[in-house]
Write a structure and sequence with these properties.
Elements: H1 7-26, H2 36-67, H3 70-96, E1 108-113, E2 116-119, H4 125-147, H5 153-174, H6 189-202, H7 204-207, E3 223-224, H8 229-239, H9 256-268, E4 283-284
Helix pairs in contact: 1-2, 6-9, 8-9
Bound molecules: heme C.
Amino acid sequence: MKTKLPMPFIRIFSIFLVVFAITEFMTPGDELGFSHPTTAAFYLLVILALVVIEKIKQASENLYTDHISGKEKEAYLAEKEASEIKDWKGLIQALSKTKPISEEDDIILEHDYDGIKELDNDLPPWWLYMFYATILFAAVYLGYYEVFGGQSNEEEYIEQVAIAKAEVEAYKKTVKTIDLSNMEASADAGALSKGKKLFKQNCAACHMVDGRGSIGPNLTDEYWILGGGIKNVYNTISEGGRDGKGMIAWKNSFSPEKIQQLANYVLSLQGTDPANAKAPEGEKWTEE
Ligand code: HEC
């Protein structure tokens, strides 16, 4: 076989690499620290190298053809084309081991099947070696899973689920969940401004922007229907008011964190004494 790599082969190989690179780019990185974009970049680098090699080869040939002319040039180009075709044919020949038509007489079988004759071709190496590879694969597979007790799909599944559950538990310990039991008043400016924005968008229709009250009660005074203090206010916003009064439960719309921001914002309105405030409703609240 020719040692020189034929150009058509390089081009086909490049197309495969481009497809690999695209799929790698579209796949997110996995936990093994094996980043897919890095692999894709590697493929692209290989393609770039192949292109550079081809360009250099072309440039050196151009350099040569620039110096020759007429018959000499024609002869050179014709020979080059012929050798490229030969390279390609050589590759196909090496992979398939086909006999040229002129040599078919050597391999034709004696038998005549109703006028159809058969050639006793060698098995094409590409096929033969793939067949050997499958035999090898089967042996390794059988040995690994059946003899040496490799994990079955089911065992692997059970193990992975157990690992994932342990990870979830570990994660839960690292995050502080927000609920009534650990609810605390906060004067954090960032959280309050987030609460203010949420209040404007979702609550002002009934409580007014300044909390003076309209359909909903006045939120700026010390009187509360459903109880004051951070825990009661959080609970009211989360679970809603009394049936039929119009204050819905917001826990389906907002995360506990957002409800906490809203509750703290509502409490920050205490004593702001806006104009036209709605008359107090409920009991006067005093923190114990
Ligand atoms: C559709 C009108 C409406 C909207 C919108 C509304 N509320 Fe209310 N809200 C009410 C009514 C009515 C009550 C009184 C409930 C009751 O009497 O049980 C109330 C009660 C409350 C209370 C308890 C007041 C007390 O005196 O105990 C708080 C706190 C509150 N709302 C906060 C909010 C927040 C925060 C939002 C926005 C996420 C909101 N509300 C949106 C109508 C509304």
